[in-house]
Structure formats: structure tokens, C-alpha cells
């Protein structure tokens, strides 16, 4: 659902109840551009980093971010 910011202001509490009951997000537009999104609690769109979970490499906590060889190459 998409609404204007003015309409959102007038119907804010009812829209919050609607999102809670239906789970459908509300996109809020101001001058034709989306400026905010009202999402239900625990919505997957609320945490865009979750698909990246487990893709990072584990490193030693005090290991340098770049190698000595890379430092020398920059000199």
C-alpha cells in the first residue's frame, strides 16, 4: 500500500493497526518520492543483511587488515 505523507499523518494510528494485523507494509510518499516504509515487527525487509549471514571469513581479531606485501606495494 502506498499513501501520501499527508494522508499518513491523518490516519497514522489506524495504519499502524492495519500493518500489525495484515503484515502488509505501507510506503509513504512525499512529493511523489518514497520517503519511509512502515513495516510489521520482525519483517525480513527490516533486516537486509540477513541473507549475507555466514558469508564472511573468520579472521584472527588482531591480524592486520592488509598484508605487509600490500603495504610495500603502495610505497
Q: What's this entry about, in short?
A:
With 75 residues, the chain is α+β, with helices and mostly antiparallel strands. It has helices spanning 5-22, 68-74, and strands at 2-4, 26-30, 33-38.
Defining traits:
YefM-like fold, 3 strands, 75 residues, 3-stranded mixed β-sheet, single chain, alpha+beta, 2 helices
Topology (elements, then pairings):
Layout: E1 2-4, H1 5-22, E2 26-30, E3 33-38, H2 68-74
Parallel strand pairs: 1-2
Antiparallel strand pairs: 2-3
Can you characterise this structure?
The structure is a single chain. This protein has 75 residues and is an alpha+beta fold. The chain has a domain at 1-41: YefM-like fold. It contains two helices and three strands, in the order E-H-E-E-H. It has a three-stranded mixed β-sheet, with helices on one face. Helix 1 (5-22) links the parallel strand 1 and strand 2. The protein is elongated, with a radius of gyration of 22 Å.
Amino acid at each position: 500500500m502506498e499513501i501520501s505523507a499527508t494522508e499518513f499523518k491523518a490516519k497514522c494510528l489506524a495504519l499502524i493497526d492495519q500493518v500489525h494485523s495484515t503484515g502488509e507494509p505501507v510506503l509513504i510518499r512525499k512529493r511523489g518520492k518514497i520517503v519511509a516504509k512502515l513495516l510489521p515487527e520482525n519483517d525480513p525487509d527490516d533486516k537486509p543483511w540477513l541473507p549475507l549471514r555466514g558469508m564472511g571469513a573468520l579472521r584472527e581479531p588482531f591480524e592486520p587488515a592488509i598484508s605487509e606485501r600490500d603495504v610495500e606495494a603502495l610505497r
